[in-house]
Design goal:
Layout: H1 2-15, H2 17-22
């Protein structure tokens, strides 16, 4: 469900959080 996607989304931001600082924020589509 959406909850599961949100968890993966936040996990991706935490992992690629450093890269997102260098690059503009782009929403990930699962």
């Amino acid at each position: 469900m959406n909850s599961l996607r949100e968890v993966l989304f936040m996990a991706a931001l935490a992992t690629e959080g450093r890269l997102s600082l260098y690059e503009p924020y782009k929403p990930y589509k699962l």
